[in-house]
Specification:
It is a single chain. This protein is 93% helix and 0% strand. The protein contains 2 helices and no strands. 0% of the residues are buried. It has helices at residues 7-136, 139-142. The protein is mainly alpha-helical.
C-alpha cells in the first residue's frame, strides 16, 4: 500500500518544516499571548485578594473606631445625665433649704405677732378690768 521511495523522506521533511514554521509563526505568539493573559489574570487576582484583605482590615479598623466612638459618646451622655441629676438634686436641696428658712422666718414672725397680740390683749384686758372695777366699785378704791 505504501510506497517507501524518496517521497516518504520528502514528506517527513515537509512535515517537520511545516511544524517548525507553524511553531515560529503561530504557536510561539499564541503561547506567549496565553502566558501573558495567564500572568495578567494571576496578577489581577493577586491584587484583588490584596485589595480585599486591605479592605477587610480597614473595615475592621473603622468598625473598631466606630465602636470606640459610640462608647465614648455613651460615656459622655451618661456623664452628662449624671451631672444633670447632680445639678437637679442640688437645686432641689437648695430650694428646700430656702423654703425651710422661709417657713422658719414666717413661724418666727407669727410667734412675734402672737406675743405682741397677747401683750396688747393683756393691756386691753387690764384696761377693761379697771373700767369694770371702777364702774362696780368706787373709783377711789380702785386706784389703791
Amino acid at each position: 500500500m505504501f510506497d517507501f521511495d524518496a517521497t516518504l523522506p520528502l514528506m517527513a521533511l515537509q512535515f517537520l518544516l511545516l511544524a517548525a514554521v507553524l511553531n515560529v509563526i503561530f504557536y510561539k505568539p499564541l503561547t506567549k499571548a496565553l502566558d501573558d493573559r495567564d500572568n495578567y489574570i494571576r496578577t489581577n487576582n493577586l491584587e484583588a485578594r490584596e485589595r480585599l484583605a486591605k479592605t477587610e482590615r480597614l473595615t475592621k479598623e473603622y468598625e473598631q473606631q466606630l465602636a470606640d466612638a459610640r462608647k465614648q459618646a455613651q460615656a459622655v451622655v451618661t456623664q452628662a445625665q449624671e451631672d444633670a441629676q447632680k445639678i437637679t438634686a442640688e437645686k432641689i436641696a437648695e430650694a428646700q433649704r430656702e423654703a425651710q428658712a422661709q417657713r422658719e422666718q414666717v413661724a418666727q414672725e407669727i410667734e412675734q405677732q402672737k406675743q405682741e397680740a397677747l401683750r396688747s390683749l393683756e393691756q386691753q384686758v387690764d384696761a377693761f378690768s379697771r373700767q369694770i372695777l371702777e364702774k362696780l366699785l368706787e373709783p377711789s378704791l380702785v386706784g389703791k
